[in-house]
Amino acid sequence: MVLVGCHVSIASSIDRAVGRARDAGCDTFQIFSRNPRGWEAKDLDPGVAAAFRAAVSEAGIGPVVDHMPYLPNPASPDDAIYEKSVASLAGELRRCSLLGIPYLVTHLGHHRGAGTEAGQERVVAAVTRAFEESGESGVMLLLENTAGEKNSVGTTVDDLLRIMEGIDADGRVGICFDTCHAFAAGYDLRTAEGVDAVMGELDEKIGLSHLRIIHLNDCKGELGSGLDRHEHIGLGSIGEEGFRNILRHSAVRSLPLICETPVDGRRDDTGNIAKVRELAGP
Question: Which domain holds residue 58?
């Protein structure tokens, strides 16, 4: 059996996300803890946070994953955006701690023409400061690989390695591997050999113990297209056979799998979760 879930809404109250996850058939699930399209976030009500923790415990599903909002760019050369991004990251780490969420996934941002190395150095400094400002906690920050779009700083395994090596926070940083992003960046996940190759590279350079979450998404773009557009499981360029190969790999099967698939009426979250279980079967 695989541990699979999806991203669920926190509409009305964050604790209601747990029931939505259960209704979708999730074993694990991901949320935004706040409005993902704005900079400002209301402080969490301690009572609501306690209700969320109680609902997760009662439902028996997890781990829960939180995702950073869209606007922060920790690689930005713009000082105003950068400072707001650091504050947002520190704030989200504190929110996860209050909610009892063990993992926070972050995109690594774009260097906006300053260069990959400069962007990566900004990310390292941003994460280091966010950890200092948020204080000690049991929350692990997961760096998510990007699709190879223009000015991105975390596309390859080597990119992720350079950023991880720069952060002096042993045990607080891991990897979230997104299948759509990896395929768009040029990692061919359609064959068993291709899956073995990328997992082998992750193991050799970073260590599979640092791989904590899989974002399981098909890709609308072709291999190496740099197109960050998710597709329903098996309906994109990776395809059903590709996902069979991904899901047969022991490193993948042992991890929580989060689907971030489109909302377009062709298939709902429950359908994507069912498709993952079907493709992971014998």
Answer: 3-280
Q: Answer yes or no: 232 catalytic.
A: no
Q: Which position among 15, 178, 231, 269 bears the catalytic label?
A: 178
Alpha helices by DSSP H, listed for the chain, are 16-23, 46-59, 79-99, 116-134, 157-166, 179-184, 192-205, 239-248, 250-253, 269-280
What are the beta bridge partners of residue 103? 65, 140
Alpha carbon distances (Å) from 275 to 111, 159, 223, 229, 267: 37, 32, 22, 19, 10
DSSP 210: G
Number of domains in the chain: 1
Specify whether 187 is catalytic: no
Q: Can you give the CATH number for the domain in which 115 is found?
A: 3.20.20.150
**Which residue from 139, 52, 144 is spatially nearest to 102, judged by alpha carbons?**
139
Mean pLDDT by 10 residues, the chain (282 residues): 96 96 98 95 95 97 97 98 98 97 97 97 98 92 97 97 94 97 98 98 98 98 97 98 97 97 95 98 84
Q: Catalytic annotation on 7?
A: no
* pLDDT at site 170: 82
Angle between helices 269-280 and 239-248 (to 10 degrees): 60
| Confidence (pLDDT) at 55 | 98
